[in-house]
Design goal:
The complex is a heterodimer of chains A (about 290) and B (about 90).
Chain A lengths: L13 H22 L1 E3 L5 E3 L3 H8 L1 H31 L4 H16 L2 H11 L6 H8 L10 H29 L3 H9 L4 H12 L1 H16 L3 H6 L11 H11 L3 H32 L1
Antiparallel strand pairs in A: 1-2
Helix pairs in contact in A: 1-13, 2-13, 3-7, 3-10, 4-7, 7-10, 10-13, 12-13
Chain B lengths: L1 H4 L3 H23 L15 H22 L4 H18 L1
Helix pairs in contact in B: 3-4
Classes of the chains: A mainly alpha (about 290), B mainly alpha (about 90).
Amino acid sequence: MNKIPDNRAWWLVLPVFILVAFSALIPLMTVVNYSVQDIFGPNSAYFVGTDWFREVLQNENLQASLGRQFVFSAAVLLIEIPLGIGVALMMPTSGRRGSLCLILLAIPLLIPWNVVGTIWQIFGRGDIGLFGWALNEIGINYNYTGNTGDAWATVLLMDVWHWTPLVALLCYSGLRAIPEAFYQAAEIDRASRWAIFRYIQLPRLKSVLVIAVLLRFMDSFMIYTEPFVLTGGGPGSSTTFLSQTLTTMAIGQFDIGRAAAFSLVYFLIVLLVSWLFFTAITHLDKEK
Amino acid sequence: MIAWMSWTMPTAIFFAVIAAILLAMTVYEVVSPCTERKGFLPIATTRGDRLFIGLLTSAYIHLMFLGLSEVSLWLALGISVVWLCILLRWG
């Protein structure tokens, strides 16, 4: 039987295409246009070619900010992914206790970013904050507004508190999708707890872990509100991450052309890293 | 709509070339559909994958020229075009 190819269904994609064009493509094109001009408004734009890109790439402040951003995102992934898997493994599988755990875990996810920043800003204070006060009382000299290490630890702790539940919830749903027969087979083989994790649970968690790693990478790479509220980027510029540098440039200094060039470089980095993660993990899957 | 986007001739040409490439690839795909295959890249890719990889690496080639040297970008463009062709054919 000869099948006649009919691709008319592709027209159904048209509404999405139009939506994406308005929400992503046109703004992106505009950013590209701005990045080659010294611009204050459509009527006062001067073509400068690739000068902004050259300046952005050779600017030491931006390079430092980029370095901090990579360290932060790497730390976030290294802490949150194993911790999230651990929490999911320890959660009760069903019943009331399971539901209670799910609700408790979901609470940090429901809190808006600026509120999370404010909570930790107060929590970490040495005079009225429980966390800061307790640390100082047991003899640890802790001051997140004056000490770079403390500021970093607090920003990281805040992110771990806010977003590990997301990883845990994703892993929990992945774990619940494993058929009971797998565990029964493992029991017959007298598999150790580690072997069950390594050969049954971890491979089955791969697809949710791809999503978790991607979401956490992109989110941590774009982080703005929480450190901005908590430390304001300080002390000095030790917790000033990329998006804060970008915002200061675009809105604070109204340097739109330079900020546009900077955001395109930022975009290319996110695109590359996300693509690498995604390709690495999906191709590992295919090889199996 | 055009005014606030602040178009310039170089960026218009840039997007027109990208659109033309996408259009040509679509037509090529309809005329002769591709299959995933393995070339010199470490992963099996389709034609679209190779185009994406080629464009992304070309962007990085340009950034490297801008950030690390004072050499004209026309050289970066030349290298990128050759690289894109190699990638599409043998990647």
